[in-house]
Amino acid sequence: MAITGVPPDRPRVAVVKRDKVPGGLTLDYSPEDLAIVKEMVQEAVDLATGGIEHVVFPGDRVVIKPNILFPVAIKWGICTDPRVIEALIMVIRERVKPVQVFVAENAAMNSSTMASFDAAGITQAARRAGAVLIPLEHTSVVEVEIPKAKYWVGDNPKVFRALLDADVVINVPKMKTHFQTCNVTLGLKNWNGILPFGPGRDCCQQQQQGHMVEMDQKFADLYRAVKPSLTVVDGIIGMEGQGPFAGELVDMNLIIAGTDTVAVDAVAATIMGFDPLVDIGTTRICHHEGLGVADLARIEVVGRKVEEVRRPFKRPSWDAVGVYPTVHVYGRGGCPGCLAPIRVVIDYFNMMGKLELVPPDYLKEAGNLVFLEGKGPFPHPEAVPIGKVFIVGDCVPESVVETYRKVRPSTFVVRGCAPMHAWIPIADELAKMMGRTSWPAWTEQFYVTTTGPAPAG
Ligand code: SF4
Questions:
Q1: Residue-wise pLDDT tens digits, 34-51
Q2: Other Cβ atoms within 10 Å of 424 Cβ, number
Q3: Distance, CA of 137 to CA of 148 (rounded, Å)
Q4: Pocket of ligand 1, candidates 212, 332, 335, 339: which has the most ligand atoms within 8 Å of its Cβ, to mutate?
Q5: 173 lines ligand 1 (CB under 6 A)
Q6: Whose CA is nearest to atom 4 of ligand 1?
Q7: Does ligand 1 have an atom closer than 6 angstroms to the CB of 395?
Q8: Is there a contact between 44 and 14 (Cβ–Cβ < 8 Å)?
Q9: Cα of 389 from ligand 1 centre, angstroms
Q10: Contact at 8 Å (CB) between 175 and 186?
Q11: Protein residue whose Cα sits closest to atom 8 of ligand 1
Q12: C-alpha dihedral sign at 261, 269, 233, 296
């Protein structure tokens, strides 16, 4: 969609900052706190587009896509801030009438999106502002052919129909680092949620497939398939380090908006201390494929200057080697696709320790944890530290698995290539080994104890 006064070869990105945004991450933020965020969202959208009425027209069906990971309490800052969602819906509905606004998401890792909406405060925010929630996992998908795709070659993704049928799609990611290859999760990475979850490359495998070296190309291809009309980055409270869920929160007090998601991501990534043409695969690929502009010299930044608000984020890492004293990784001939889920296990238990749902040294209770990934060669099972052995990925030869099972009968095997899902059975196994409840039960406990029921509507 052409926005008045914004030349497509020099996209405009608005950066709006306040010294302090009061209220923080809570389900019961006050109308006064919401008003400040609304003012920021309004200002960013106006600066970037000349007004929401240049993006949304009367009678439009608008789908807002936040970034909601799984059912985790709002205070951990993992999901899009509900104040930003509520503010955006208010801005749209006040300025454009009549209009239908939906908030649609497909939470990660097969989690319940409704439970995730509730925990993140999105349910009450959306309903209060007059929008309808769509938990996408209960809706239909459509196979889409993507011309010039490089990842989706030989098969086509199936994406949720709700996004394809919308007149306007608005992308509302959160400003976070991401421990896998693309370093950040902003607008382009947020498109992983337009795919259904599953364990295979067919329709059900799409969401987790590609969480390895080619994932940036996957997101660039998806951006060809579904182009949002507007991207609004929630940069109120960002996350640095081991994002997207185990990092540390940073008060940024920012809203960043624009119609070119590539340019918005490029500006946001630069503010976070990354070079969007070097460090960020998604923006680099999209820029070179002509899908948007990631070169800051060709982006018109309005509002605050990038250098005024730049605050380098701690970098994330997918590498599980040498980060925890009792975790021993044997990974010759492997790749990030298998190292990343091992790293997630470490990050996850550390996060649960911070949440006080497990002791801070929970992993140490398990003793030595030995991980094998890649093609090897691997040492004989008697030569690795005494402790639990996990074999991750398809690359590890079956002969190695057989030998380990013979000599170390408790060896736990999770197959798959780039088996991102592997961290869940591994976390479950660790929990069971220590006589604790399993991962889903923790999540449920966390959800129940930290959220209240959403108002009816
Ligand atoms: S199975 Fe092999 S190629 Fe696939 S992600 Fe693991 S190490 Fe990489």
A1: 999 999 999 999 999 999
A2: 19
A3: 28
A4: 335
A5: no
A6: 417
A7: yes
A8: yes
A9: 18
A10: yes
A11: 335
A12: negative
38 Cβ contact partners less than 8 Å away, ≥ 6 residues apart: 83, 86, 87, 90, 91
- Nearest ligand 1 atom to the CA of 373 is 7
Tokens representing 260 are 């070119």
Nearest Cα to Cα of residue 357 among 251, 294, 434, 300 = 434
CA of 335 to the centre of ligand 1 (A): 6
CATH 2.60.40.1180 fits 32-316, yes or no: no
- Reported as a single tens digit per residue, the pLDDT across 94-144 is 999 989 999 999 988 777 899 899 999 999 999 999 999 999 989 999 999
Amino acid at 297: A
- DSSP class of residue 454? P
Q: Is the CB of 372 under 6 A from ligand 1?
A: no
pTM listed for this prediction:
0.90
Q: Which residues pair with 133 in a beta bridge?
A: 103
Q: Any idea where the domains of the chain sit in the sequence?
A: 32-316, 327-447
Place of tokens 């052409």: 2
Tokens matching residue 57: 């027209």
Amino acid at 445: Q
